[in-house]
Amino acid sequence: MTNVRTDGQRKRVFIRTYGCQMNVYDSDRMADVLRPLGYALADGPEQADLVVLNSCHIREHASEKVYSELGRLRDAKVQRRTEGGDLTIAVAGCVAQAEGTEIVRRQPAVDIVVGPQAYHRLPELLAAAERKASIRRAGKRLPGAGVLDTDFPPESKFDHLPAPQGVRAGSAFLSIQEGCDKFCTFCVVPYTRGAEYSRPVSAVLAEARQLLAAGAIEITLLGQNVNAYHGEAPPDSKRGSTWSLARLIRALAEIDGVARIRYTTSHPRDMDDDLIAVHGEVPQLMPYLHLPVQSGSDRILEAMNRRHGRDLFLRLVDRLRSVQSELALSSDFIVGFPGESDADFDETMRLIDEVGFASAFSFKYSRRPGTPGSAMPDQVPEAVKAARLAALQALLAKQARAFNASKVGATVPVLFAEPGRKPGQIVGKTPWLQSVYADGDPRLIGRILDVRLTEGHANSLAGEIAGRLCEAAA
Ligand code: SAM
Ligand code: SF4
Question: What is the pTM of this model?
Fold first, then answer.
């Protein structure tokens, strides 16, 4: 594959990311893999020679978005070819993993399909796609469309990825765990991301140091089940052959320059005593936790195979708040799981009332082929799901507004991340992950500043920069 276009320009790649933070991390790493091949990042598909759709398969709506985008890209590719150019189209991520051959059948314009565990092989896949393209240009018959790599390779992709380059605005994601062995009956993750795997501690700490050197001051540790982390201990470790997430967080906090630590997404079953204790001990660990509960009904939690009940969740919340009184909680909820009655739904609403969430994500149950939930009887009608979701979201929005309002008048450290929508405005995050808008110089992006919060809204706050820089502690 040549790195330089025939017109002498560098090649450009546009990566569109769907879904979770793990996909954001993977997209950044794909850019790192492509950079040595001469690919610079493009701002949109129009300027790109290669478009990668990093897809999400978690709900039906998420996968369908990929197919609509592929239709638009096919038209762009046809247009390019009439003008003597070309466009390479790649589908990565969980739709690629789950529907590899189906993607190429539904959209033959796709050149490459690469699963989430194989994107370190993009250079070979691009070379193979280029070979196919030259056969087509020579007017010969093609040996089948698309190049597929959706194996779960025995070696870890992490061993083959280059060091991360560049950090966006002081904040970086660091994937420490992948896959899942829990098999909740609604979820595709164990099938698309494979078995649970934890990266060795020394690899994680080395990547953290690289991210800090590249400008990070906040690190968010990522995993589908991040608190199930049990990475191989470093060679000089005195105790045990593996480290837990709690131990990893303590070690990360010791590294110079780490101002903020977060982790996501956690499972209630893996919230052990030590991890709870860390919330009260490590000042850089932000007082915010995303802890998905899905439902407040024990009957539904059991049908979901969540392996925890309502009480365990409520006890965890109490214990976490007893070590960190400032803790803001966020969660995921699914309404309309098969068999969910009005009484089950009321249990969820009661749980929300009891806990009081600062923010949350909520979804209508989406039937995913191949998961046990999709074959269960008593599927809930769409209209019932929609009505329940509206009621649940109204309650969660009321709680989010109340949480934001409770911070008005306080001066809090904000890590500025990007320009705001209005000229002269910048936007950042509080320790509780609330968005804050303030007037400020864009050169302050990537730094932590004290901000006096002046107005609270449903999804954000407004504030005034109070001046003092406080990069060392959040
Ligand atoms: N590992 C996390 C946990 O244990 O809850 C969740 C990770 S999952 C990628 C993110 C969220 O998507 C889930 O918490 C769930 O609320 C939602 N989700 C997953 N499958 C779904 C489905 N079939 N329908 C609706 N929402 C779904
Ligand atoms: Fe999916 Fe999370 Fe359940 Fe694993 S624990 S199956 S990722 S919802």
Answer: 0.92
Bridge partners of 464, per DSSP, are 452
Query: Residue 290 to residues 314, 356, 413: CA-CA distances in angstroms?
Result: 14, 13, 20
Helix/strand number for the chain, H first, E second: 12, 21
pLDDT tens-digit series, residues 226-253: 999 999 999 988 888 999 999 999 999 9
DSSP-derived pairing of the beta strands 359-364 and 328-335: parallel
Q: Please identify which residue in the block is written with the tokens 């605005």.
A: 169
| Rounded Cα gap, residues 136 and 129, in angstroms | 11
Q: Which of 23, 270, 334 to mutate to test the pocket of ligand 1 (most atoms within 8 A of CB)?
A: 334
Q: What is the pLDDT of residue 169?
A: 84
**CA atoms of 106 and 196, how far apart (whole Å):** 31
Ligand 1 contact, 332 CB (< 6 A)? yes
Which of 94, 177, 183, 184 gets mutated to test ligand 2 (max ligand atoms within 8 A of its CB)?
A: 184
Distances (CA, A) of 365 to 60, 382, 396: 10, 9, 18
Is the minimum distance from the CB of 271 to ligand 1 under 6 angstroms? no
Alpha-carbon torsion angle 182, 183, 186, 192, nearest 10: 110
User: Cα separation of 348 and 346, whole Å?
Assistant: 5
Distances (CA, A) of 361 to 290, 335, 380: 10, 11, 20
Strand ranges inside 207-280, DSSP E: 218-222, 230-232, 242-244, 260-264
Measured by CA distance, the residue closest to atom 16 of ligand 1 is 332
* Contact partners, residue 160, CB within 8 Å, separation at least 6: 120, 121
pLDDT at res. 167:
76
Is residue 4 pLDDT above 60, yes or no? no
pLDDT per residue over 300-311, tens digit each? 999 999 999 999
Angle of helix 342-355 relative to helix 310-323, nearest 10 degrees, comes to 10
Distance, in Å, from the CA atom of 198 to the CA atom of 182, rounded to the nearest integer, reads: 15
Bridge-partner residues for 232, per DSSP? 242
Mean pLDDT of 356-367: 97
Helix axes 60-82, 93-106, angle to 10 degrees: 50
Distance CA 461, CA 159 (A): 41
